[in-house]
């Protein structure tokens, strides 16, 4: 490909124009769908089958146009020169966004096969399912940023779910975990569940920081310990390993409340309370990683641990804090997952750590440490959830879903290693 250059101003102007075009197109389709005098046009073009596509076009147009406008008004440092189009930049683009492009192609295919996938309700379901997974991924990202991992994350989710639900059952439920326990405040069992996870997180950090044990082995050992301890707790009489149910309404509301629900038939289905909760946690983690000394230390340790020691960073304390903070996030996710499903068993959280690690890698968090952004983690979780939800939506076999998920993970890791070698 012959090298071409365009000015940065022209490049930003293109995004502004593209955003306006998408907004106008979406508004025109929305008008054609809703206006009664355009009913013949709607029938002729079969616009009923595009469902909420106009809304999505307007949202995408607003985001794209806003991106171009912000870039034009407040250009980022180091991006003031011309934009270069060449074989090298095209290859870099394909390497960085290969998984995202594959997801977009898959979404188009799914929409063609099953147009109901374009409903706003489906998008909100995807965001709801992504919420707790995102919280887990944000915890695991800290361990990946120091070139480690955490295989105990899923079991901590299950532990928090079991502890919180066991103490938050209604007084009239026949099979109460603690028959004689009085109705306690909502936040006490939740805090106890998160604290239990943090204790095991401290054990992870101690094994890694004190004995220089590889995080894979340390967290594998703690994962087995947690599952055993959770199963022993779950098997206590009179429960005897029966699924925990009958949770209190105030606890279930933490995961099942819908915001901005329309009472009109076919109106807005509402936003799950889990979505803004996950958004707030994202903002907090972004602030920690980008605006605090602790966050800068995390990147420094992952980039070069020896250099971090020479620079005076307390690696032992930082690693301990990393695993404790991560475990607190797993605990929060476990509590919210239990509230969303209004129950728990000792099997909750099985395999969640692998999905979270894969989502982080797909989102650009390097397994070699020191590289990763919160925005990338959000996109990685959404990509995985969209693919999984979409394949289920068109009734793809669960076995094939596992094959596709494994292929995505392999490609994402290969891309990560390729970028690392180039550097």
Strand-helix topology:
Elements: E1 4-6, H1 8-34, H2 39-45, H3 53-73, E2 83-85, H4 87-113, H5 120-145, H6 153-166, H7 187-211, H8 215-234, H9 249-256, E3 258-259, E4 271-272, H10 274-291, H11 293-303, H12 305-310, H13 315-341, H14 352-362, H15 374-393, H16 398-422
Helix pairs in contact: 1-3, 4-15, 5-10, 5-13, 5-14, 5-15, 6-7, 6-8, 6-13, 7-8, 7-13, 9-13, 10-11, 11-13, 14-15, 14-16
Structure description:
With 423 residues, this protein is an all-alpha fold. The protein contains 16 helices and four strands. It has helices at 8-34, 39-45, 53-73, 87-113, 120-145, 153-166, 187-211, 215-234, 249-256, 274-291, 293-303, 305-310, 315-341, 352-362, 374-393, 398-422, and strands spanning 4-6, 83-85, 258-259, 271-272. The strands form two sheets. It has a two-stranded antiparallel sheet with strand order 1-2. A two-stranded antiparallel sheet has the order 3-4. α1 (8-34) packs antiparallel against α3 (53-73) and α5 (120-145) crosses α15. It starts with a strand and ends with a helix.
């Amino acid at each position: 490909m012959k090298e071409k250059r365009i000015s940065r101003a022209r490049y930003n102007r293109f995004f502004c124009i593209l955003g306006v075009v998408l907004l106008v197109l979406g508004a025109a389709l929305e008008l054609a769908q809703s206006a009664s005098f355009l009913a013949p046009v709607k029938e002729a073009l079969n616009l009923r089958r595009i469902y909420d596509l106009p809304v999505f076009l307007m949202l995408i147009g607003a985001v794209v146009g806003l991106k171009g406008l912000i870039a034009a008004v407040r250009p980022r440092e180091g991006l003031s020169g011309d934009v270069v189009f060449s074989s090298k930049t095209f290859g870099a683009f394909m390497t960085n966004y290969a998984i995202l492009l594959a997801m977009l192609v898959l979404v188009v295919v799914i929409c063609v096969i099953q147009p109901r996938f374009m409903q706003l309700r489906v998008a909100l379901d995807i965001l709801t399912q992504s919420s707790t997974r995102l919280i887990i991924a944000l915890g695991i990202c800290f361990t990946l940023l120091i070139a480690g991992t955490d295989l105990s994350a899923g079991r901590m989710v299950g532990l928090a779910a079991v502890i919180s639900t066991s103490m938050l059952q209604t007084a009239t439920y026949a099979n109460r975990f603690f028959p004689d326990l009085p109705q306690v405040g909502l936040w006490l069992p939740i805090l106890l569940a998160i604290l239990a996870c943090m204790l095991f997180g401290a054990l992870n950090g101690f094994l890694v920081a004190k004995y220089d044990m590889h995080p894979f082995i340390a967290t594998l050992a703690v994962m087995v310990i947690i599952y055993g301890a959770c199963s022993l707790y779950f098997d206590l009489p009179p429960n005897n390993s029966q699924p925990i149910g009958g949770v209190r309404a105030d606890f279930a509301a933490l995961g099942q409340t819908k915001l901005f629900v329309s009472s009109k038939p076919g109106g807005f289905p509402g936003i799950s309370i889990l979505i803004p909760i996950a958004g707030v946690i994202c903002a907090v983690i972004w602030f920690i990683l980008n605006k605090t000394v602790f966050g800068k230390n995390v990147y420094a340790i992952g980039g070069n641990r020896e250099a971090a020691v020479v620079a005076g960073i307390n690696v032992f304390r930082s690693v301990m804090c990393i695993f404790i903070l991560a475990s607190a996030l797993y605990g929060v996710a476990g509590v919210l997952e239990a509230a969303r499903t209004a129950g728990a068993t000792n099997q909750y959280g099985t395999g969640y750590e692998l999905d979270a690690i894969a989502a982080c890698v797909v989102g650009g968090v390097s397994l070699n440490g020191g590289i990763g952004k919160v925005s990338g983690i959000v996109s990685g979780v959404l990509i995985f959830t969209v693919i999984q939800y979409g394949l289920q939506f068109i009734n793809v076999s669960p076995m094939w879903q596992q094959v596709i998920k494994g292929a995505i993970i392999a490609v994402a890791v290969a891309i990560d290693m390729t970028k690392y070698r180039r550097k």
